[in-house]
Structures are given as structure tokens and as C-alpha cells.
């Protein structure tokens, strides 16, 4: 299985509660990750190398572990312009363009989930939005 390298932080996670979580993650980061006090500019985060079938599987595994253990949603992979899309090589696993396109899509999804949670939607509420888009029926 391939090893995927990526960085993660929380785009809105710089308040006192987030600082407490970052202290916890510094002491005990997820497997394959190390804490970096300035992973993106002056933002704390995790530098990770994780074995998984795809980059998205690796990223979402770490995001899920951190969220489950701390309540902090890591939603930032360092993609600065989400509206920019690199399509050349996107279907070629391991190509720089494919990795950037995957990071862009993953970050957009993580940001959307974070914003929906901040608007008061719980997990079932978010699934109410996503299930029909994915072709799964859901009774509302």
C-alpha cells in the first residue's frame, strides 16, 4: 500500500480551546504524524505520512482520529486557492497534479463539513445534504 505525505491544520482553530487541543496533539500526535508549530505560516498543524490506498483515505483517517479524540476538525491541507483546479494528471495517482487536485477536493469537503457543523448541523443533518448527491436515498 502506498505511503501518502500531507500536512493538516484547522483553518478556524486558533482560539484558546484549539490551543489546548494542539497541546494535546503535540504530546500525542496520531500515528505517522508529527506536530509542527508552524506547518503553514504561523499556524500549528500536523505533518503526516500515512499508508493508505489513496491520499483521500489517508487524510480522512487522520482527520477522523483527531476529531473523535479531540473534537477539532482539521479542515486545511494548505490549498490556498480552492477555486483553482489542476486537471492535467488528476487521474494519475502519484502525479503532482493528481495529488494537488485530490488535496483541493478533500479540503473543500472538509471546509464544507466544518461550516455546516458551525451552522448547527449534526452528522445526520450533514448526511441529509450529502446522501442524495451521492445517489443514496435518505428519509428526511
Describe this structure in words.
This protein is 44% helix and 16% strand. The protein has 140 residues and is of the alpha+beta class.
- Put simply, the count of helices is 4
> Rg to the nearest angstrom?
15 Å
- Average pLDDT level: 81
Provide the β-strand percentage band: 15-25%
SSE order, as H and E?
A: EHEEHHH
| Biggest sheet, spatial arrangement of strands | 1-3-2
Mind describing the biggest β-sheet?
A: 3 strands, antiparallel
Large-scale geometry = globular
Spatial gap, N to C terminus: 39 Å
Record field, number of beta strands? 3
Q: Give the uncertain stretches in residue-range form.
A: none
The class by helix and strand makeup works out as: alpha+beta
DSSP helix fraction: 40-55%
Key words describing this protein structure:
140 residues, alpha+beta, 4 helices, 3 strands, 16% strand, globular
Layout: helices, strands, pairs:
Elements: E1 3-8, H1 16-27, E2 33-40, E3 43-51, H2 55-70, H3 96-118, H4 123-133
Antiparallel strand pairs: 1-3, 2-3
Helix pairs in contact: 2-3
Question: Can I get a quick summary?
Answer:
The protein is α+β, with helices and mostly antiparallel strands and 140 residues long. The chain is 44% helix and 16% strand.
Amino acid at each position: 500500500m502506498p505511503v501518502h505525505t500531507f500536512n493538516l491544520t484547522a483553518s478556524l482553530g486558533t482560539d484558546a480551546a484549539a490551543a489546548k487541543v494542539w497541546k494535546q496533539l503535540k504530546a500525542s500526535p496520531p500515528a505517522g504524524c508529527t506536530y509542527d508549530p508552524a506547518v503553514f505560516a504561523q499556524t500549528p498543524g500536523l505533518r503526516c505520512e500515512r499508508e493508505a490506498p489513496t491520499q483521500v483515505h489517508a487524510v480522512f483517517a487522520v482527520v477522523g482520529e483527531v476529531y473523535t479524540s479531540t473534537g477539532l476538525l482539521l479542515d486545511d491541507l494548505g490549498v490556498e486557492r480552492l477555486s483553482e483546479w489542476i486537471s492535467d494528471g488528476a487521474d494519475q495517482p502519484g502525479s503532482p497534479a493528481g495529488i494537488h487536485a485530490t488535496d483541493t477536493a478533500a479540503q473543500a469537503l472538509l471546509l464544507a463539513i466544518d461550516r455546516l457543523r458551525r451552522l448547527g448541523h449534526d452528522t445526520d443533518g450533514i448526511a441529509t445534504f450529502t446522501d442524495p448527491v451521492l445517489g443514496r436515498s435518505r428519509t428526511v
